From TrEMBL:
Gene name, Swiss-Prot/TrEMBL: pstB
Protein name in UniProt: Phosphate ABC transporter ATP-binding protein
Compartment(s) where it occurs, according to its Swiss-Prot or TrEMBL record: Cell inner membrane
Function: Part of the ABC transporter complex PstSACB involved in phosphate import. Responsible for energy coupling to the transport system.
Record keyword Membrane present: yes
Organism per entry: Neobacillus citreus
Record key words, sorted: ATP-binding, Cell membrane, Membrane, Nucleotide-binding, Phosphate transport, Translocase, Transport
Bilayer topology term: Peripheral membrane protein
Length: 257
């Protein structure tokens, strides 16, 4: 393997197992995540997609009674073994949830939240970050005249873009998105999808989706999970045209799930 191919993996997950108490929720997952690609995760409810995504920035540590074995290598460091600064990890691996969850603060303060935690205090610097982050998610024009209005006054689609801006404000390398459009109308959904295609120029994106069209529109790779197992991971075009495993085919053609 050449150096170039080695460094293309932002994450390299090896033999990852996870238990919630007795429940074996992730089974021997081997999963490389490639830099500046969009990786989509699909599979029926309860198959472990959210669990997997939450392991990547160790948000899973907030859940009690979880046991993990294996390796989650992030830029060559096994985050399951090495003592590391979790605030720093979550700065590099940002997360956006299913429902936009702005803080009950102003639009500006939502975006400035992360940078402030990381010690940025100068107004000019914060202004720059807020402007740039809102521009990055194509929200700037819609909110520039009301930056100090409550974020909760925005529409659902705007709130979700705001949450993406908030995640981008700390300059992450990876953006995790767990069903980011499942609560949105079709137009807001399309905006987020367009945004994902733009963001992948700069970021590595992992997106959980129940929408097959969405996976095929936005992702380079698609991973199919079933009952805690990664059944198949391949080029998105391959998964949707000619999957190797008949369980993948069954799922994408709607025979179960
Ligand atoms: N905090 C938790 N405690 C115990 N079991 C959980 C917890 N979160 C998820 N699970 C279980 O783990 C499995 C995978 O859940 P999840 O990762 O949320 O699946 P998905 O996102 O694919 O719907 C499910 O059986 C679910 O009930
Ligand atoms: Mg889920």
């Amino acid at each position: 393997m050449t150096f170039a191919t080695l460094t293309r993996n932002v994450f390299d997950i090896k033999d990852l197992n996870l238990w919630y108490g007795e429940h074996h929720a992730l089974k021997n997952i081997n999963f490389p995540i490639i830099k500046k690609e969009v990786t989509a995760m699909i599979g029926p409810s309860g198959c472990g997609k959210s669990t997997f995504v939450k392991t990547l920035n160790l948000m899973i540590n907030y859940v009690s009674n979880v046991k993990m074995t294996g390796e989650i290598n992030f830029n060559g460091h096994n985050i399951l073994n090495e003592k590391l600064d979790l605030v720093e990890l979550r700065k590099k691996v940002g997360m956006v949830f299913q429902k936009g969850n702005p803080f009950p603060q102003s639009i500006y303060d939502n975006v400035a939240y992360g940078p402030r935690i990381h010690g940025i205090k100068k107004k000019k610097h914060l202004d720059e970050i807020v402007t740039k982050s809102l521009m990055n998610v194509a929200l700037w024009d819609e909110v520039k005249d009301r930056l100090h209005a409550p974020a909760l006054g925005l529409s659902g689609g705007q709130q979700q873009r705001l949450c993406i801006a908030r995640a981008l404000a700390t300059k992450p390398e990876v953006l995790l998105m767990d069903e980011p459009t499942s609560a949105l109308d079709p137009i807001s959904t399309l905006k987020i999808e367009e945004l994902i295609l733009e963001l992948k120029e700069k970021y590595t994106i992992v997106i959980v989706t129940h929408n097959m069209q969405q996976a095929s529109r936005v992702s380079d790779k698609t991973a199919f999970f079933l009952m805690g197992e990664l059944i198949e991971l391949d080029e998105t075009s391959k998964i949707f045209s000619n999957p190797r495993d008949e369980r993948t085919e069954g799922y994408i053609t709607g025979r179960f799930g």
